[in-house]
């Protein structure tokens, strides 16, 4: 979150996007076309618009906050809100029931918003390319930045929809309308990877302005892409092999970031979720938001605006994104301070007596526990909107206190100027660990995973109640070297990713990448529906529910050129 001293290139977007006939024909309106731009200043305006584009989602068309797509569709969280009919499309996602054509609000709007961001990048790329190097000394870096931004949007589309059309700035309107979404697994990932490789090759190691990606951010993002690509899927989304060459690329890319010495884990994981400590040592790339920037309400993140405790007097709305009982149970530990991999969900955890991982109190709102690091306002069950349906837990990582300088209430909805991390150093460590494990080198993964656990254990400074005690009984220890086989290490890695990024929208995509979504989620439902009866009819169908449907409006518009995903 920035105040008025934010660098100009990330300030509130002044370019207004108009309506379009269809997403692939999208063109910014109210601005000069790229062919009319001749000055570096005007071109920089288009670059600014491209940066703004990756943060231009909304509550029903999110493009960076994956709380609905990646958290509620997983075992981390329930939809929440005022019952199952409140924003029913997310309820349909939670039940894995997006097969009807009426389910077209979130799904189609996110598609549209992502293509808007891609179009902004392409317009800016054409404009930057048209300038001579001598007239625009920043040309090489700006081209690389724009390709990084475009790759980010395409990557998001890929993990959401899988089968997507991919085109660059050289495609004409006629070209675009003839492009199919029927690409092979390798073709689609490699097209996106080419943009990130260009960014790796052409971005500086250090940027003069906060918020621009550097070489290491591009390496980390390329590592993430190659990690997803390594788990090769067939046409029905089944993981059929794990590409060892891709894993070696992940190791090399992550090692470059780690050995640069530019990044480190924050001393307290809380620093990742507070505006006062954003853009710190752990943040490789984040979408920048603003407040007090001379505009009425700043440039804020509203994608998480539904996800505040409903009954809390400082908020008043809306109670979405409730932590699941399964997630709460997953934070419990055994007597040795390790996760209870096989028994964690045998019963409802008694949080008064159980020992837990510290990260539970950075993630879940629990009655009587410090909420969002303010011990004068502990979480209360009275803050929960519909406990009869969704239970009494809430989420908090991407929420801010009403007293925060980053917070702004716009009618019933909340926006915040806390920057939104796209990739952090903790993920770099865990990506490298995952690659080592799948390469048969779990001994190299162990110290990386234990760095994450050691930091978690030390992250208690903001969790004390007013009387100086903790509401939870913390016990989290490093994994021992003895018995850290490939199979055990794989389980540990998957567990650490869940607890480290819980409710941040990564869980569902991890399960799909590993090829275990159907197994894990149907096991989750089989138990959770006895605790939350609204899940009684939920079932995950393998070969369909790993991805969202391609919006029917797009298939109709292209006269069937776009192929629908299997099962829809």
From TrEMBL:
Keywords: Cell outer membrane, Membrane, Signal. Gene3D superfamilies: 1.25.40.390. Residues 282-568 form the RagB/SusD domain. It is found in: Cell outer membrane. InterPro entries: SusD-like_N, SusD_RagB_dom, TPR-like_helical_dom_sf. The keyword Manganese does not apply. Residues 102-227 form the SusD-like N-terminal domain. It comes from the Bacteria. SUPFAM superfamilies: TPR-like (SSF48452). Its main location: membrane. One of its GO terms (cellular component) is cell outer membrane. Belongs to the SusD family. This is RagB/SusD family nutrient uptake outer membrane protein.
């Amino acid at each position: 979150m920035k105040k008025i001293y934010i660098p100009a290139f990330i300030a509130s977007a002044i370019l207004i996007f108009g309506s379009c006939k269809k997403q692939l024909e999208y063109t910014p309106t109210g601005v000069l076309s790229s062919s009319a731009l001749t000055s570096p200043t005007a071109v920089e305006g288009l670059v600014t618009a491209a940066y703004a584009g990756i943060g231009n989602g909304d509550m029903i068309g999110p493009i960076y906050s994956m709380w609905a797509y990646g958290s509620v569709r997983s075992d981390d969280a329930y939809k929440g809100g005022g019952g199952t009919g409140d924003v029913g499309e997310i309820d349909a996602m939670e039940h894995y029931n997006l097969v009807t054509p009426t389910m077209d609000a979130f799904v189609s709007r996110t598609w549209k918003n992502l293509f808007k961001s891609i179009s902004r990048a392409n317009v800016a790329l054409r404009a930057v390319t048209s300038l001579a190097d001598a007239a625009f000394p920043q040309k090489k870096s700006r081209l690389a930045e724009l390709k990084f931004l475009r790759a980010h949007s395409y990557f998001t589309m890929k993990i959401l929809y899988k089968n997507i059309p991919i085109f660059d700035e050289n495609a004409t309107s006629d070209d675009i309308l003839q492009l199919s979404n029927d690409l092979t697994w390798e073709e689609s990932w490699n097209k996106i990877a080419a943009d990130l490789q260009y960014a790796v090759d052409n971005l500086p190691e250090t940027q003069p302005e906060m918020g621009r990606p550097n070489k290491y951010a591009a390496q980390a993002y390329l590592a993430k892409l190659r990690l997803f690509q390594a788990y090769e899927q067939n046409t029905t989304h089944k993981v059929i092999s794990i590409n060892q060459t891709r894993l070696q690329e992940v190791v090399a890319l992550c090692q470059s970031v780690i050995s640069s010495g530019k990044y480190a884990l924050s001393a307290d994981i809380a620093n990742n979720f507070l505006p006062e400590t954003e853009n710190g040592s752990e943040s490789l790339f984040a979408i920048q938001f603003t407040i007090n920037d001379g505009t009425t309400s700043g440039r804020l993140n509203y994608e998480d605006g539904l996800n505040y405790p409903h009954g809390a007097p400082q908020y008043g709305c809306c109670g979405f994104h409730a932590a699941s009982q399964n997630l709460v149970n997953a934070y419990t530990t055994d007597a040795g301070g390790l996760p209870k991999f096989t028994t964690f969900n045998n019963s409802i955890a008694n949080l008064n007596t159980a020992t837990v991982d510290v990260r539970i109190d950075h993630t879940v709102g629990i009655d009587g526990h410090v909420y969002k690091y303010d011990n004068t306002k502990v979480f209360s069950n009275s803050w929960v909107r519909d406990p009869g349906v969704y239970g009494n837990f809430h989420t908090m990582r991407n929420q801010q206190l009403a007293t925060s300088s980053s917070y702004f209430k716009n009618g019933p909805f909340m926006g915040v100027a806390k920057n939104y991390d796209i990739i952090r150093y903790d993920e770099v460590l865990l990506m490298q660990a995952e690659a080592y494990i799948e390469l048969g080198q779990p001994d190299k993964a162990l110290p990386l995973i234990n760095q994450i656990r050691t930091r978690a254990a030390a992250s208690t400074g903001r969790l004390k109640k007013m009387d100086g005690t903790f509401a939870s009984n913390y016990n989290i220890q490093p994994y021992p070297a003895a018995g850290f086989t490939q199979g055990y290490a794989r389980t540990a890695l998957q567990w650490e990713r869940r607890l480290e990024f819980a409710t941040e929208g990564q869980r569902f995509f991890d399960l799909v990448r590993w090829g275990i979504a159907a197994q894990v989620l149907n096991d989750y439902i089989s138990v959770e529906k006895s605790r939350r009866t609204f899940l009684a009819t939920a079932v995950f169908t393998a070969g369909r529910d790993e991805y969202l449907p391609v919006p029917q409006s797009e298939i109709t518009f292209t006269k069937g050129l776009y192929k629908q995903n299997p099962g829809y």
